[in-house]
Amino acid sequence: MGRWHLALADVGTVKRAWARVAYGKLPTATYKDAVRCFEKAIALNTNRLMHCIELGRTYAQMGRDADARKFITKGLAMPETEKDDPEIKNLGRQILKELR
Hints:
single chain, 100 residues, 0% strand, globular, 75% helix, mainly alpha, Serine Threonine Protein Phosphatase 5, Tetratricopeptide repeat
């Protein structure tokens, strides 16, 4: 759910207008909703690095660079256990470079 909220929170006004014409109104989603979902995901599974990196990515989108660094760094330090973990770690590294 956090990724869904993050993706929809990134949709701009023009894209929302086109989506409204084509599909009807898009559901509302905010970065705060994404943060809430990622925090819950971390509480439910503390060993999933994707949750930490995605929470950091959300904070980066919100301009909360210190929080973004904290959670991305935490995720990068975790062992890879899922098949998509290397890709998520690369995304985290990319975001960290952009924050500096």
